[in-house]
Amino acid sequence: MKKLFKSINLTKWYTLVISVCVCALVLISVIISESVRGAKPKSVEAPEQLVELDQKDPKDVEKAIQTMKVEAMVKEAEASVDEDLEADESKIWSMFENYAVLGDSRAVGFSYYNFLRDDRVFAAGGNTIRDIPDLIKDLKAIAPATIYLCYGLNDTGIGHWQTGEEYGKELREVFDKLKKALPDTQIVASSILPATEAALQNSPVWRKIPEFDKALEQACKEKGVIYVDNSELVEKYMSTLYDEDGVHLRPAFYPLWAKNLYMATVLAQIEQ
Asked: With contact defined as beta carbons under 8 Å apart, do 99 and 147 qualify?
């Protein structure tokens, strides 16, 4: 009986030892596996953006990849232009080819300061968008690849339009006329440059500029015209590069404004 009891106990002991060994082996195997997995080179890990894309619909993935490509091209284009201008700010003017600039007294500065050719700048003090149709014949004669519209100061102050809504309606009509007459020409519209607070005190009507500019942006969107937002430029340089009257511009402002206008055409081509 005692021998049987010892035999049973011995069997249990052997079983326990074997079980412990098996568990130990399994544990060691898991540890080694995790260690090897953790030692995976970081360079092999997929970028976080791609991991996120892997979890999306294929159509969304394709769209996201295309967006990333466009963003990369935009950054490269901007960096290239910035590099050229950092070396020589005047290079911006050589980037304007087969163009026409239309506008008011602010736009006159492009030719007045000898930045752009007189025969390519169709601008005069007091002009508004209502003067554009009268320029179509001259524009067709030179057939510009790009037309830059730089209006707004008189549009808000002269009294032809009381509200942004009225202004936007006529803008759409003007855009249609331009597109019909020059179907192969790219139209770029500068946002309306605001006036300083001192100028607004003298002429409160210019407080309507944000309302009219919003109407301009919406009309551009609807009619396929490139809208150029100059708000950051103005915020940075209004205090130093505006004339004393608070509405007109000093010569140093024009290369910066020109860069904004030019880059808008470059980015539009990239995004097409």
From this structure: yes
